[in-house]
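Moderator note: this is an archived Q&A kept for reference. The question asked for a predicted structure of one protein chain; the sequence and the answer are reproduced below.
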Amino acid sequence: MLDALNQHTWMLAIALSFMGLVVGSFLNVVIYRLPIMMESQWRKDCCELLEVDEKQATETINLAVPNSHCPHCGQAIKAWQNIPVLSYIMLGGKCHNCRTRISIRYPIIELVTGVMTLALAVYFQASLALLGAMFFTWALIALTMIDVDQQLLPDDITLPLLWLGLVLNVSDTYVTLESAVIGAALGYLSLWSVFWLFKLLTGKDGMGYGDFKLLAALGAWMGWQAIPLIILLSSVVGAIVGVSLMVLKRRGKDIPIPFGPYLAMAGWISLLWGDQLTALYMDAAGLTS
């Protein structure tokens, strides 16, 4: 079957594009609900620790319950209203019941997920590497948007991502297992060291622990050799965006900017084109023989 798919790459690309759109719709649910689920669990844990009753009644919420509904009028969203991208266009970007405008970010996330999944189908052959890269990409999209919204990188995503990278590289899917283990350790310790150096010098936290775990996960997937490139790419893009926000939106320099999206972006680029970018850098620096 894999040989047949590789002989008809256009079929694989179309199928995975549609799959990406559907997964993007699910990622919208994850991005919205996972922080709420975490906050509810934190509240419950605190009440148990303090031995007090949690009097505030909250609606049971997880990734499956309740069914998707309009946050304004509460009207349940029907199947035909939940088709990725297409439903948004058919509804004119508004709720079918109350006509409240629907955020454009929902179809954008669906479309971006579809396009990025298509890129993977073009880059990889039908293989375990392609399957792993899809989960890797979807996890990074969810982490990016949650960090943008909440300045939070949930362990529920970063830690499974780290372990999945190590497991896949047992069979050298992307890099050797040795490189993956060293990459995970180097990824975590590099940002951990920067964090504590910055804190000792300024007395402030420069980043969150979630950033350490995300870079560790990226190292587990792509090996220690990719860590310098990922740090360089994410730092450059983060600096450009940060300065732009301060200039264009007059955003104060003391307002924290999430670093996770830049790590995720750099990690995805490195997965696909890391070797080429590293070779270009080595050539430009005159380090190749």
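Archived answer notes: Residues 86 and 277 are 36 Å apart (CA to CA).
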